[in-house]
């Protein structure tokens, strides 16, 4: 979440008239994340998050908002999009597609304990199962084709031969991974610590579904593990890993094909976020508040997976 598009008090007050939210009290930009413009909004009828979509395809936005509604309808603690007086969950503000969702209670955690990891694993497995009944479909915009294209671009634009060699070697290895042959479904694709909310050890919300897509379910588990179970220095925390994977498998067991592909899945998930962060670092975007994450963390995670076999599932 960053602020690329500024919104004035008068513009927001007029925008909110189309929603059943009461009068505007105040709002503030959110400086975390990297893709969309986001504001916390307080009104006389509640607390909300306003998102202006900066780079996502307009045609894909109903997939994200419909998914959030589908999950909420099945009891999953997803942020729920608010509909306008005329029944729309997608509107326009300052020339950008916009959505208003109710702000969930809770806070993200920087250093999760084992119970929080168990709850995240359980929630991810539950989301995957509920998602099987969601009729929408959206191609992963950060899938294998994007990783190959972005990796080649970054390899050409780096002056560091070690980075170039790592990208090229990993892309060659990833050519042997066929994600389409693995069980498919709706994935969050970005279930990092800052996208899960807790009140103490109780999971109260899963947010930011704007990377959600249709892809290999086990890849989503790999994305989640890479964030929740690794220390800042790139070393694995085995206790967190065990807690999260056991809770996930209690809701959805992995297939033999997923287990066979598991080492490369972990590497693909690490490569995806290393490349996206390295891209933002190499080609920075302008904005009022822009949050650029350090790519080094995911380089270390990728190297760890290349040098160590993962714990047994």
UniProtKB/TrEMBL annotation:
Keywords assigned by UniProt, alphabetized: Amino-acid biosynthesis, ATP-binding, Kinase, Nucleotide-binding, Threonine biosynthesis, Transferase
Extent of the signal sequence: none
Catalyzed reactions per annotation: L-homoserine + ATP = O-phospho-L-homoserine + ADP + H(+)
Domain Aminoglycoside phosphotransferase as annotated: residue spans: 27-254
Gene3D superfamilies: 3.90.1200.10, Phosphorylase Kinase, domain 1 (3.30.200.20)
Chaperone as UniProt keyword: no
EC number(s) on file: 2.7.1.39
Pathway the protein contributes to: Amino-acid biosynthesis; L-threonine biosynthesis; L-threonine from L-aspartate: step 4/5
GO BP term, example: threonine biosynthetic process
One Pfam entry name: APH
Coiled-coil stretches: none
Single Gene Ontology MF annotation: ATP binding
Family under the similarity heading: Belongs to the pseudomonas-type ThrB family.
HAMAP family, per database record: Homoser_kinase_2
Protein name per Swiss-Prot or TrEMBL: Homoserine kinase
